[in-house]
Amino acid sequence: VRSYSAHSDDTLSFDDFTKKYVTFFEQAEDLFEVQRGLNNCFSYDLVPSTQIVEAALVACRRVNDYPTAVRVFEGLKQKCPSEKQYKEYLEATKELREQLGVETREELAI
After folding, report:
1. What is the torsion angle, in degrees rounded to the nearest 10, for the CA atoms of residue 86, residue 87, residue 89 and residue 94?
2. Domain ranges of the chain
3. What pTM did the predictor assign?
4. Are 45 and 25 in contact (CB under 8 A)?
5. Average pLDDT for residues 49-78, to the nearest whole number?
6. What contacts 54, CB < 8 A, 6 or more positions away?
7. If you placed Cys at 12, which of 16, 44, 70, 76 could pair as Cys (CB 3.0 to 4.6 Å)?
8. How many CB atoms lie within 10 A of CB 11?
9. Where residue 12 falls among pLDDT bands split at 50, 70, 90?
10. Which of 70, 67, 58 is nearest to 27 (CA)?
11. Thinking of the domain 14-108, which architecture would CATH place it in?
12. DSSP annotation string for 90-108
């Protein structure tokens, strides 16, 4: 019997997990796929790597969905155990966010 919250790939290392989702977002062809990938990725009991976050942002902009790009950071803020770690993610992705024109909810003041 498998628990509802169990994942079929719970044995993946963090590096394999990162590769899996970076590849997934690089290949996502539409908004449904991007949102499904985000839902699956954020359902694990870990904070996704910056590589996953960056691949997800690029995928959101590729399918022309700005709101989902902003929501990536809302999900990330919930997953990070501290405000300090969240700010480190913001700093690590700053250049790409500026390049893609993606602002956080706080920057949008909403």
Report:
1. 150
2. 14-108
3. 0.88
4. no
5. 97
6. 93, 96
7. 16
8. 7
9. confident
10. 58
11. Alpha Horseshoe (1.25)
12. HHHTHHHHHHHT---HHHH
